[in-house]
Write a structure and sequence with these properties.
By secondary structure, this protein is α/β, with parallel strands linked by helices. The protein has a domain of 177 residues: Rossmann fold, CATH 3.40.50.150. The protein contains 11 helices and 7 strands. The longest helix is centred in the last third of the chain and has 15 residues.
């Protein structure tokens, strides 16, 4: 994975990302209250904050949130989305260089972003900005592929027409990646249900928002959209299809005595 290129992959997909990407279940906040002692007076660094989907959950909980995002277009979209929140600050930075002060945050979150991070430099930066006993929360939405005919057919479509779908999919973090990052016993894993409900335009927007979806000038674009139309028509009920996810959560505290991932 080229980590520099990764920071620009969504520049021309922001509009679709804002409208059609899944958010995160509110139960996530309840889980963090119970497991990590999350309180409204604590400070959050949402690293790779994108358009602000996760940041909003913490802002609604009363937290001060710094949204750290390297991609200018995504960062501006997040600023617009969260403009009504006085507790939100937008920061031009990355996981490896957040531009935040030392020991300044209680929680670091990374939603749908960890696979784009360079892990060794990121771990050092997280240790720098976390307060003592601070928490790191890694979150992403996994499509539930095999449970429905729609889920299986959508996966087949991505494999067939995606520009580099297999490479991006392989980069998604696994349990071993979390062990390497947190330490063998330093984290816990939880799962929460999540879903989106789409008409055809929404489903098309969801597909276009993916970094591996071909753009309109690509040879795969027209056949991909034709295949998506067929897929939708075969699976829709009252003009809608449901995309199911599992929201994966890994959370733990970094060992300051272990300096490398």
């Amino acid at each position: 994975m080229n980590f520099t290129d990764a920071k620009q992959r969504f520049s021309d997909r922001v509009a679709d990302y804002v409208r059609y990407r899944p958010g995160y279940p509110l139960a996530l906040i309840d889980l963090l209250r119970a497991e990590c002692g999350l309180r409204p007076d604590q400070v959050i660094a949402d690293v790779g904050s994108g358009t602000g989907l996760l940041s909003r959950l913490f802002l609604d909980n009363g937290n001060r949130v710094f949204g750290v995002e390297p991609n200018e277009e995504m960062r501006q979209a997040g600023e617009e989305y969260l403009a009504a929140y006085d507790q939100f600050s937008s920061v031009s930075g990355s996981s490896e260089a957040t531009a935040l002060p030392e020991a300044s945050v209680d929680f670091i979150t990374a939603a749908q972003a960890f696979h784009w991070f360079e892990p060794v430099a990121t771990r050092l930066e997280f240790l720098r900005i976390l307060k003592p006993h601070g928490w790191v929360i890694v979150i992403w939405n996994d499509r539930r592929i095999s449970e429905t005919a729609f889920g299986r057919a959508y996966e087949d479509l991505l494999v067939r027409y995606g520009t580099d779908y297999a490479r991006v999919k392989e980069a998604y973090p696994e349990t071993q990646d979390m062990k390497d990052f947190f330490g063998e016993e330093n984290f816990q894993r939880r799962e929460l249900p999540n879903f989106q409900d789409f008409d055809f335009d929404g489903l098309a927007g969801r597909l276009r928002s993916s970094s591996y979806a071909p753009k309109e000038n690509h040879a795969n674009y027209a056949p991909m959209m034709a295949a998506l139309r067929e897929l939708f028509d075969a699976n829709q009920k009252i003009g809608r299809v449901r995309m199911d996810y599992t929201t994966q959560m890994y959370f733990g505290q970094l060992d300051a005595n272990r300096k490398s991932a």
